[in-house]
Design brief:
With 533 residues, this protein is of the alpha+beta class. It has helices spanning 21-38, 52-59, 64-68, 81-89, 96-118, 124-139, 142-146, 153-169, 183-192, 238-255, 273-286, 293-301, 315-319, 330-345, 390-393, 408-417, 440-454, 468-477, 488-493, 511-532, and strands spanning 42-43, 49-51, 72-74, 175-178, 202-211, 223-233, 261-266, 351-352, 364-371, 380-386, 400-407, 429-433, 459-460, 482-486, 495-500, 506-510. The strands form three sheets. It has an eight-stranded mixed sheet, sandwiched between helices. The structure holds adenosine monophosphate.
């Protein structure tokens, strides 16, 4: 047995978001709800895990995300079924030992599958297979053959191969993956719920955690968060791309983020991109020896991704490569020109980055990215683009799509770097009550605290009686604006002492005066804040 650990820690690459930072996260998320709603986007809440195949097919099997970063697991009531199957598939009929094991292992598998069946984990088609396997298992009785029981080798041989075929085809349940991104899920939901029949474009947004097994560093986590939006529909008008980008910039503006840079590019469509990719590959092969191992591999798997390389010594080589802008078809060129005109119409500043290809396979035409200062090498706070054809690829009707995903962790970091990370958490009133828990003083304190909270004030009510000095000391440490002192005298006279902690000014107020005073003081505070800004 392993020695017991005295402490647990969050695992590598994941973290807790603690107060007061969590208040900033709330502001970031609430602002997204507010701004996106004004563009008529509605929230979609998606599952955290999906079938592995959904991501493999949409993001692309050759991408880093799918090939090495996904958290995938088998979803069985009983663990190890895949392994059982692999062992059975490796059995060799020529090898007596292997055959003896095969018959034993097959019986075990049948037994385990029957348990899955009893739990309702197998679909009907598989249930018939299990019955058939049970029958075959009883026929593959190698011991019986040795002991001369009435069984021919032909019987055994046929049953062996039939069992192997069945075992190979049996559906042991799905492989599931913690979502590494959410666009695939949005498309899956769009298809599953027939949203293409809804009037107009379907405009959705989401927020929540994503999972990628990347090397952790500042701004890069294994559980990270995204806020994203997608437009799905029949039109691929560049006005949609521009409006999506406008919404994004309006959102960052509302949060007070300054210094962000928007980069745009067009990576063509399925008509013009293949010829460009072929040309790129040809040119890359000529300089293959000068490239690093990753880029060399990508010449074959995904040459576009070479353009993404951050390796110092590859930069000069990449600058000399052919550019997609010179290879776009007429329709894509026009789309990109119109996008830029639309951005100008909206007074949105942008830079063209011909190397912006994005790491996921599904993009077509428009791609964009936003970087923010102060984040070091992980400075992309948002990535997005058009993905016409993705819904179709996932089995849905022909549909155009465009969207983006903001890295919430990085956006929060960028806001903190820009000095916009302060959170408004504060205590308005600390109730310093003096009397036993059974006393009318405590009952009055509970009632008053409740009334103040109903008016929207943040109130801290100590659960146990404290000496006045200690109470006021704690109120001060917690940064409360006021201490409300309630003792027996106050109950008797019907007026309370409200002490402003910043300057120790005290005033005696009745219950109604108290509420009015705090409310008017709140108004003065807001007005003062407005005058200052
Ligand atoms: P992507 O889904 O790869 O297009 O990424 C969109 C945005 O998500 C990026 O621009 C980052 O801001 C953020 N992001 C992606 N991966 C991570 C990660 N491992 N940790 C933190 N943020 C990430």
């Amino acid at each position: 047995m392993k020695p017991q650990r005295s402490q647990f820690r969050a695992i590598r690459g994941v973290r807790d978001i603690l107060p007061p930072e969590s208040a900033l996260w709330n502001r970031v998320e609430q602002t997204a709800h507010d701004v996106f709603a004004t563009y008529n986007f509605q929230e979609i809440r998606l599952p955290i895990f999906e079938e592995t195949e959904l991501f493999a097919r949409s993001i692309g099997a050759d991408t880093d995300v799918v090939s090495k970063e996904m958290y995938t697991f088998e979803d069985h009531a009983l663990p190890g079924l895949e392994k059982d199957r692999e062992e059975l598939m490796a059995a060799d009929i020529q090898d007596p030992d292997s055959l003896v094991n095969f018959s034993g292992d097959l019986n075990v598998l049948v037994h385990r599958l029957k348990r899955e069946q009893a739990d309702g984990e197998l679909d009907e088609e598989n249930e018939n297979r299990v019955e058939k396997l049970a029958e075959l298992a009883s026929r593959i009785n190698f011991d019986g053959l040795i002991r001369g029981l009435p069984q021919t080798f032909d019987d055994l041989y046929n049953a062996f191969w039939e069992a192997k075929r069945l075992v190979e085809n049996i559906d042991l349940g799905k492989r599931l993956t913690l979502r590494p991104e959410a666009t695939a899920s949005v498309c899956r939901a769009y298809i599953e719920h027939g949203m293409h029949t809804l009037p107009g474009d379907v405009k959705l947004y989401y927020m929540g955690p994503m999972f990628r097994r990347e090397r952790p560093q500042k701004g890069r986590y294994r559980q990270f968060y995204q806020i994203g939006a997608e437009v799905l529909g029949q039109s691929d008008s560049p006005a949609i791309d521009a409006e999506v980008i406008e919404m994004l910039m309006a959102y960052l503006d509302r949060l007070g983020l300054s210094g962000a840079t928007l980069y745009v590019n067009s990576i063509g469509c399925k008509e013009c991109r293949p010829a460009y990719v072929a040309k790129l590959r040809e040119e890359l092969l000529k300089v293959k020896d000068q490239l690093g191992a990753d880029s060399q591999r990508r010449i074959e798997t995904n040459p576009l991704r070479v353009l993404d390389s951050k390796l110092e010594h590859e930069q000069a080589i990449i600058e000399r490569l052919p550019r997609i802008s010179d290879h776009l078809c007429a329709a894509c060129r026009e789309h990109f020109a119109e996008l830029q005109a639309q951005l100008k119409l909206r007074s949105i500043e942008y830079k063209i980055n011909w190397r912006l290809v994005r790491g996921l396979d599904y993009y077509t035409r428009t791609t964009f990215e936003i970087t923010a200062p102060g984040l070091g090498s992980q400075n992309a706070i948002c990535g997005g683009g058009r993905y016409d054809g993705l819904v179709e690829l996932l089995g849905g009707p022909p549909t155009k799509g465009i969207g983006f995903a903001i890295g919430t962790d990085r956006l929060v970091l960028a806001l903190q770097e820009a000095g916009k990370g302060e959170s408004a958490s504060h205590i308005d009133v600390f109730v310093a009550w003096l009397g036993g828990a059974e006393s009318p003083v405590y009952a009055a304190a509970v009632k008053l605290a409740r009334q103040l909270r109903e008016e929207g004030f943040v109130v801290e009510l100590p659960p146990e009686e404290m000496k006045l000095k200690k109470s006021l000391g704690l109120a001060d440490k917690l940064g409360a604006r006021y201490a409300l002192i309630i003792g027996e005298d106050e109950i008797a006279s019907g007026s309370f002492v409200l002490k402003r902690l910043a300057d120790s000014e005290q005033r005696k107020l009745s219950e109604s005066e108290l509420l009015n005073y705090l409310k008017s003081d709140e108004n003065r505070k807001v007005a003062a804040a407005q005058r200052q800004s």
